[in-house]
Design a protein that fits this description.
Order of helices and strands: HHEEEEEEEEEEEEEEEEEEEEHHHHHH
Helix content: 40-55%
Number of helices: 8
Number of strands: 20
Largest sheet: 12 strands, parallel
Structural class: alpha/beta
Length: 389
């Protein structure tokens, strides 16, 4: 078990202990907002960590803690006195963040003041005026533009990278095309890996040398790239785990409010009929690919084939939530939200254990998919009997 895995396991155990021993009032003090459009108004102040999920999430107020945000469009114009962890389609951070920014998205634009480090991954990333990053930048993108000052160093990988402002430390870049323009000022050394010669305006590299590595395949080069990006990979891995956990929790809360009886029936089926659920789920998982190709072979069945796959994917995404809630309800039968939170922690902790995680994932997949199939079938029969559908 490597150092990152050990740290992750200790974090999960820590949160597990918190989930068990904190009173319910402590959870009530934590802010969870979800919906189609979530807006934290400019005059609002959150005194704890803040969690938000929706098609559109806008933060104009103040958060005295960390912000965990997932959505199609995310806009942070307020003040976050902690870290920002975000995952979405379009992410814009124009406010002040006193901690780190870790974000994964299609398009990421940073124009705010970041007091610590920025770790981002996306299709298009731009850090542009009036942004100010006091710490370092670690980024992976298709197109990347560093147009605002960076206090420390930078580690960058992507297809095209453009630098046109100051970087206060060593810079490592792996890109097909690199442009360092007239307003750039790199205080440390520049090492870049690219099949093409970079366009570098003279006198932009102030205190260090420039190293151009053209061969990406030598062991030495691969080791250098791995070392330079290790920090980024660890940060993105942890970010993905946190975002995935938060997204599952938010979706679970939404489902518990929108379809409480359906959720209850699925969880009851999981706990009271696990072997039946396992059998049905196993058959369902095995037959879906076969049915998909059979339907795909006929012209009239093509729409149904893709509808089947979409249904399968939705069931698979919901499976983790139902299994986690079933685990949590065994420990906390009367506290749905806290039970889901605890269940997700236990589910994640077991999945982090080598050797048994694949077996646990397979068994819970079959049980969860089977329970969802059974309850959905019964619901369909009931609605047909009442001539609702």
């Amino acid at each position: 078990m490597n150092l990152f895995t050990k740290k992750l396991f200790l974090v999960l155990i820590f949160f597990l202990l918190i989930a068990f021993f904190l009173p319910e009032s402590a959870y009530a003090a934590t802010n969870f907002d979800s919906g189609n459009s979530v807006i934290l108004a400019k005059d609002e102040t959150i005194t704890t960590d803040y969690y938000a999920s929706g098609a559109t999430v806008i933060i104009n107020g103040t958060i005295n803690g960390d912000a965990y945000v997932a959505g199609g469009s995310i806009i942070v114009n307020g003040t976050v006195l902690g870290d920002v962890l975000a995952a979405g389609g379009n992410i814009s951070i124009g406010g002040k963040v006193t901690g780190n920014v870790r974000a994964v998205g299609g398009q990421i634009i940073i124009t705010g003041e970041i007091d610590r480090n920025v770790s981002v991954a996306g299709g298009s990333i731009s850090i542009q005026p009036p942004a100010l990053v006091a710490g370092s930048v670690t980024a992976a993108a298709g197109n990347l533009s560093l147009l605002a000052p960076i206090g420390k160093g930078a580690v960058i990988t992507g297809s095209q990278a453009t630098i046109n402002n100051s970087i206060g430390g060593d810079t490592r870049i792996a890109a097909d095309q690199l442009d360092i323009l007239q307003d750039a000022k790199i205080e440390g050394e520049l090492a870049y890996w690219s099949p093409n010669q970079a366009h570098i305006v003279p006198f932009t590299i102030k205190n260090g040398a420039v190293y151009h590595h053209t061969d990406w395949k030598t062991p030495k080069t691969q080791q250098a790239i791995s070392n330079n990006l290790a920090k980024a990979i660890a940060g993105f891995g942890l970010t993905w785990i946190v975002v995935s956990f938060a997204a599952s929790f938010f979706v679970g809360l939404v489902f518990m409010n929108l379809a409480p009886f359906y959720i209850k029936n699925v969880v009851t089926t999981i706990t009271q009929h696990p072997w039946r659920s396992f059998g049905v789920g196993f058959i369902f998982v095995v037959l879906v690919p076969f049915a998909f190709f059979v339907l795909l072979a006929t012209v009239i069945g093509i729409p149904f084939a893709f509808l089947l796959i979409i249904t399968f994917v939705i069931f698979a995404l919901l499976n983790q939530i139902f299994i986690a809630l079933a685990i949590g309800k065994r420990l906390l039968p009367t506290r749905n939200g806290v039970a889901l939170f605890v269940g997700l922690i236990i589910y994640s902790a077991i999945n982090a254990i080598p050797l048994i995680n694949w077996m646990f994932s397979s068994i819970t997949l079959f049980i969860g998919m089977g329970a969802i199939t059974i309850v959905s079938r019964n619901l369909y029969i009931t609605l047909r009997a009442k001539k609702i559908i």
